[in-house]
Amino acid sequence: MAAHQDRIIVVGAGIGGLTTALSLHEIGARVDVFERVHELRPLGVGINLLPHAVRELHALGLLDALRAHSVEPTSLVYCSARGQEIWREQRGTAAGYAWPQLSIHRGTLQDVLLGAFVERVGQDHLHLGHRLERVEADGARASAVFRTGDDDALVVSGTGIVAADGIHSVARAQRYPSEGRPSWNGSLLWRGTAEVDPVLDGRTMVWAGHRDQKFVAYPIADLAGGRQQLNFIAELRRPESPLGRTEDWNRAGELRDFLPEFDGWDFGWLDVPAIIRSAPGTFLFPMIDRDPVTRWTFGRSTLLGDAAHPMYPIGSNGASQAILDARVLAGCLRADDDVAAAF
Question: Is 129 exposed, middle or buried (0-12, 13-18, 19+ CB in 10 A)?
């Protein structure tokens, strides 16, 4: 791809947006990232990057940095609600993949991507405190209208806009104004991290329970003194609960809402209530997604990641798929100088 004479505007500085920006910079495109928050902080809990996504981050030269701050799980164990092993399978390179699976704190992954962006693209290409209001992408130009304060509007123009602005995407809502709220399947997830002694060999992911109640745990960092940071997910199916009606990934959870139902889950090798109680806090995630839409691209603007195809916040789906989105989009732009056609 020949270097574009004007910039690609990326909306959102999350996993998808930053990977998109790095990938576009790699192929010679000019890129600017606009993010609504005024400060990027390492929020969230642990996530898993599957080998296909790690392959793409390796291609961006980030594997060593990610490995230094993550754990490479080698196995996944499924257990009953009484801790009895049902099934075991290998993961990552232990399963024969050329690239590892990485378990990592979401904020750490974002920090690695952000550090690479600042180093390669430049701090002056990251614009915080810009809340997207609408996009206009007809003809030969694309424009995004941002609010930078209560009354201040800023119009930014370029050759294309990539909206990676999440499950509550403003750009998507503009294209599909009658879509409404995300769909909830009746399950609630309480997610958190705790400092613990290694579970089993310290490289095992654990899934225990059944359809209506389960506990998932995996290490995301090795700590001093042989301890580990363990990410956990406590899931309960409660379709009548009002707690599932608010979609906010930073919503604090309350122990009284879920811990009593896990009080008897001490398997000896895994003490679920002790892990939950030792966490400094939890976040409440309803199990939500959206139905597919007919298209993501409208002229010189397109949707990416959760803005395009939000997935349930479990199962190693969202971040890995957003990374693939970013890499494929950059590949399309490398092959076709016409931004609208590439999108």
Answer: middle
Residues 213 and 281 in one domain: yes
Please, are residues 54 and 146 in contact by the beta-carbon 8 Å criterion? no
Q: Identify whether residues 281 and 133 lie together within a single domain.
A: no
Position 123 in a domain: no
| CATH number where 256 lies | 3.30.9.30
Give the residue with greater pLDDT, 307 vs 6: 307
Sequential DSSP letters for 152-198: -EEEEEESEEEE---TT-HHHHHHSTT--SPEEEEEEEEEEEEEESP
Percent of residues, the chain, with pLDDT higher than 90: 85
pLDDT band at 248 (very low <50, low <70, confident <90, very high): low
Domain hosting residue 60, numbered range: 45-104+183-289
Are residue 177 and residue 192 in the same domain, yes or no? Answer: no
Structure-token match 């309480």, residue found: 190
Tell me the pTM.
0.95
- Asked if residues 172 and 164 have their Cβ atoms less than 8 Å apart, the reply is no
**DSSP 3-state assignment of 201?**
coil
- Shortest CA distance to 289 belongs to which of 165, 156, 186? 186
Place of tokens 């769909």: 183
Residue 56 and residue 327: Cα distance in Å, rounded? Answer: 7
Helices (H) and strands (E) in the chain, counts: 8, 18
Residue 330 CB neighbours (<10 A): 26
Classify residue 111: in a domain, yes or no. Answer: no
d(CA 45, CA 241): 23
User: What CATH number corresponds to the domain at position 35?
Assistant: 3.50.50.60
> For residue 223, what is the enclosing H or E element?
none
